Structure formats: C-alpha cells, structure tokens
C-alpha cells in the first residue's frame, strides 16, 4: 500500500473516533480548524493507547487493532445515536462564517498555502534504519513490535546460546542497571537464559510506527518507508497545535507569523524528517497547552477542554521519559485547580493521573534498564544542582502555602489579594529572564569549560558544552531570533493571563532546564532535539507576539512607523531564519540506503544466522546487524573479541545452528574462520554508501559527508 494512503487512513481513523467523542460535548463555538484538530487529537489518543496496551500485552496485530477500533466506534455511535443533535446545521454568525470579515478568507488561504509547503518540507524523511543511533532504534523497534507482537520478547536463538559465549557474542554493559548485556545498542538482554530482549525508549511513537509498518506491505523496504513518513504527520499536527495556541493567546496574525517562522526553522524541518519521538512530543505538549489555556480562561464546554488537556499531557508522558521532569509544575497546577474548584477539574486530573501512572509502570516493568538509567541521570543532575533545587522547592512550597492561607482566610477576596501584587512580581520576573538571556549569550560561554562525560556505548569522552547552549540555540534561531524571542517572552510574562500562565510555566521550565544542562552528544544537530518541544516554539512565539504588538492596524494607521518597523523586523527575522536553515532544508540523510540493504538481504537465505566479526565499540554489527535482525528477521551476533571467545564452543554452536536448518553467514575478516579451519564460500562483497550531514559538536553542522561501509559476506559450509 502506498505510504501516502497509509497516512490518510490513519488520520481518518483517528478523526472518525475523535469526532464521535466530540459529539458527546456541546461545543458549538469551535471553528472548522478547532473541530478537526480536537477530533484528530482525541482519536489519536484513543487509538494510540489501545495499540500500546496491545503491545504491552504481547497481543499487537493490525487486525486486532482494527477490530477494537470498530468496536470503539460502534460503542460511541450507539451512545450518540439517540442524542439530540447539538450543533446547528445552518450557517452561524461566528467570525469564521461572517461575510463582513476577511479573516476566514485570509487565514484559510494562508493555511492552505502552508499545508502545501509543509508537505515538501516535512515529508522527505531521512532513511534512518541504521542501528547504533536512536533514530534507527525507533524504526527497528517498530519492526520488532510487528514481528513479535509486543515490546519485550524472548528470542529462541539467543536463548539457545551457551552462557559461556555471552561475553564474546554480546556486549557487556556493567554500568547498566537491570541488564548485563545488549545484543545491539538499545536492545538490552535482561534474561540471557530465556533470550529476553528489552528495548530502550518509551514506546508510544514506536507503536504508531508499528501501525504504519504493518500497513506498509510485506517487504521490509516498503514497510520501513511507510513508518518513516509518520514523523511528518506529527510535525503537521505539532505545528497546528502551536498555531492554535498562539492564536488563542495573541490572535491569528501572530499565529500565522509563528507558524511561518517555525516551519522554516532548521531544527523543526530536520526532526519532521527524523524518525524519533520529538515531533509526537511537540504535538502532545502543545495540544495540551492549548486545551489547558482554553479551559482556564473559561472557554466552554469546560469538560471538553479539561479532558483534552489531561489526555494530551498524559500522552506526552507516554511518549518520552523526561516528561517526568514536568511533574512539579503539574502538581502546582493540580492544587491550583482543586483549591479554585475549577469546573471540569476531575476531567483533567483523572486522565492525566492515569497516564502518568501508566508511563511510570511501563518504565518499571517493560523498560527497566532505560527507566533506571534516566532516573539515575535525573538524580545526578538534582545532586549537582541540589542547592538551586532546594531553594526552588522551598520558594514553591512557601508560595503554595501562602496562596492556600489567603484562599482559606479570605475566600471572598482571595483573588483580589493575589492580583494586587502580581504586576511588580511579573515585571521582576520578566527582567530576570532578560538578564538570564544576556548572561547565557554574553557571559556564560566565556567561563571555564567543565569536564566532559564518558559515552556509555562508545566509551569516548564527550565535551561538556553546556556553557554554550544558548549560543548554539542561536545557530538555528539566528541571533536576531534569540533577541526578539527573549523580548517577546518577557512581554508575555509581564502580560500573563489565564490562557498563557500554564503555557509559560511549562515551556519556560523545559527551556531553562535544557539550556542550563543538556546531555552532550557528538552530533550537534541531534543534541538540539531537546529544544524542539518547548524552547524553539516558545522563542518563535515570543518573536511573533512581539512583532504583532509593535504593529497596529487600527484607526487607519496602516502606514505608521510602527507598521513599517514590524514589517522590517518580520522580513529580517524570516530571512535570518531561512539563512540559518541553509543545508538543513535541502538535505535528506541516508537517501537510498533502504534499497541498498534490500539488495544485500536478497542474497541471503531467509531466517539465517549472521555473525559479524567486528571489535569496534560501535561497529558493523551494530549499524547493519540491527536492521538485518529486526526488519529482515535474521538472527544476529557480533564477535566483539575473537581472542576471548571459547573457539571450540563457538564452532560447535555454529554446527548446531546448521543442523537446525539455519544458514550461517560470516561478515567481516575471515582470519578467525581460517584459524579454526572452517570451510566457507564467498557470497558477496557488499559496499554501502550514503550521504549525511556531518556529525560534529564543535561547530554548526554544514558539510555533507559520504559514508562508505564494506560488508564482505561468506557462508560457512556445513
């Protein structure tokens, strides 16, 4: 099935379920875009959670999911069947349908033009199926879910491996809690005797990739292309979520400007094509922020907005493990809405609490090595910043206690007491943010660099570039984008409202957290993924809000100096953003690599055993053994240290595999085979080539590198 058709089917399946859910609420004031987006978001949450639970129970299958989808739709249809129609069929007098206003025509036309451009920008995926990196882990994990029917699984060939061979055919990970080895990077062996493999990462995005992989076709090449396109769909949804959030906070003009600035940003485009979880995370985070803002600002129906906010933020917790860092902010929000007796608070708190519990339980039982590793990392950061965190905790508790006291003591006038002193405090906070921006840009990069950290996979020492984080963010926003964004954010903080309070609290928390301390990565563009959820959209939003507040289109002042300044800033800002995106928009990494690997696989017998001879910490067995294992269904091992291997036992194991009907292939130098006097016959000497953006952490990536890999393959004779 063509990949585009698959994305249309998935989108329609989500919208149909979500539309039935939306009919349960009386929401006549939603415009066409809001109605479609809410339906898509609610349906995506229902279908994604259903697929995830099936995978967790080792019952994932596309037909099972289709039957459950039909059952859910029938239940919702039956509930709505005899309900009185809640929406008027006639043309409403709302702004979108008013013949007196140009907003509908301008906004709709602009969105259609953006949609066409976004198809080219977002739907040119990097063909990242190579192991040894997070992107390849996601695509291969999705294939594994389809083949195994679940996330954690027992591999029979691995289970039959003699324990004495494990140290030489698997990679020991002595620093990893919950696992002694990994088969290939991020696929931990948590029970050698049973061959149990526990993949890394939170699974919501891989489960969605598994759905597209299932619909993609029987061949791995076709299926993987379909799953790679999925990230573009989340990028579309994420950009629209940010658009709706900005429109709600600052008007449609600012929203269109923010949408344009975001869509041409280098990091946004790059991760729209990159098969990791960033775009799905962005979609759920900003959908939740939009809904919570609508709910707290009193938009009706309160139950709908509260439900969407709780569900979207809950899905964010299932998508990425660092969502747990957001718990303090949400705890304060929960206390606030409860003390305030906010209408619909149970609709928000119950689904949010359930999904947080679900995410935590999944981490402990189904992704424990990853869960413990990230928890340890988080605790290490807290230990490093314990004084700062303790001060923040004390201040938060004092503020919460003071609010509770005022609320209880002066129930009738509590809000008046709070509002009385908020303007000076907000002004102080805005000034503090500007000072932090100046410090991060001008002063912090000049301080002595801290010591680096050791990569647990490659054992290389990576530089600690935390002092340069803010400047490096400017590589992709442009220096002007950083300056305008900081001013706009300060303006929004000073003029904070109910519809922007939670938005600013969460996005500022995430932005400050990762701008202060981001775990280093040898590939700079990949390290910038930490900023695509909150920091980059927030700075783009701040810029759009600032420019539209400078402009004025009232009182026939269309050609005032303010409008001229706003136009000049817009053109220079957008031009600098495009200039910063040079090379990123045009480049597609690893283009053609799927077809090359497919050609290699066609020379191998199905369900073979592949033995890579490669002592490198991250080598051919990791790069190419990962897709050959999980996408092409071979058994893969890497002989990492031939000198330490029990040679007679390994020879006997090879004979056993052959006696059980497996063809055994050796990939790499054949010196070990010659030493053991094993006969073999050449199959092919494969050469793989691909062009990708340079992997550097010292400067902004610009150069294109042509990578070459050589895979000499022989078949060991019976």
Write the layout of secondary structure elements.
Blueprint: H1 3-22, H2 32-56, H3 62-81, H4 103-122, H5 134-148, E1 153-154, H6 156-159, H7 166-169, E2 171-172, E3 181-184, E4 187-191, E5 196-199, H8 204-216, H9 220-250, H10 252-263, H11 266-272, H12 278-296, H13 302-319, H14 327-339, H15 345-366, H16 368-384, H17 386-409, H18 414-420, H19 422-443, E6 453-454, E7 461-462, H20 469-477, H21 479-494, H22 498-516, H23 524-527, H24 535-550, H25 561-580, H26 593-601, E8 609-613, H27 620-623, H28 625-630, E9 635-639, H29 647-659, E10 664-667, H30 671-675, E11 680-693, E12 704-716
Parallel strand pairs: 8-9, 8-10
Antiparallel strand pairs: 1-5, 2-3, 3-4, 4-5, 6-7, 10-12, 11-12
What does this structure look like?
This protein is α+β, with helices and mostly antiparallel strands. It has 2 domains: 3-84 and 117-122 and 225-384 and 421-580, no CATH class; 592-716, no CATH class. The chain has 30 helices and 12 strands. The chain has a 5-stranded antiparallel beta sheet. Strands 9-8-10-12-11 form a 5-stranded mixed beta sheet. β2 (171-172) and β3 form a beta hairpin. The longest helix has 31 residues, at 220-250. It is globular. The two termini are 40 Å apart.
